[in-house]
Design goal:
Blueprint (H helix, E strand, L loop, with lengths): L5 H23 L2 H4 L1 H21 L1 H13 L3 H26 L4 H4 L8 H27 L1
Helix pairs in contact: 1-3, 5-7
The protein binds protoporphyrin IX containing FE (HEM).
Protoporphyrin IX containing FE binds next to helix 3, helix 5 and helix 7.
Length: 143
Amino acid sequence: MQTRTWRDSLAKTQYVMDSVLLIGFILVCIPKVTGIWAHEWLSLLFIIPLIIHLLLHWDWMVALPKNFIHRQSNKDRFNAIWDALFYLVMLMATVSGFLVSEALLPQLGLPVDILPVWSKLHHDLVIWLCQCLAYTLLCIGLG
Ligand code: HEM
């Protein structure tokens, strides 16, 4: 019988966390189904698996700048830029989400003055995010 190494366990944990992240992201993307209250609390909770995901891929992130310059193929470089863009837009979508909070922040005693510009930004960013995710899943599916 083969002995399981810590690398096997790490790969399994990464797989489970990636699945949690994907399901969480899909739930966050359907506020019309979940309702705004659940959308906002889910978005806040979503930050936890997102941070765990980043920590589980910490080695990859630390090695990225060096690999990007010296070792990677053009396809890997494109993927690295794509990932970085995805995270940046995700961050901006989350920040703009807090700026248009109708349930979570008022419930915590922090009512926000919602400006139309933030609503538009949140709307535009999440549309872009959903398109990016669809493209990424398509690429993974096509290998
Ligand atoms: C990655 C994070 C997030 C994603 C992917 C996301 C996704 C979405 C989507 C798809 C919509 C519907 C857009 C539309 O129909 O115009 C929406 C609307 C909304 N989101 Fe988020 N959201 C995120 C974070 C947040 C956060 C953190 C909050 C607040 C705490 C929030 C509050 C809202 C509100 C209040 C609306 C309704 C806005 C309106 O109708 O003008 N979102 N979000």
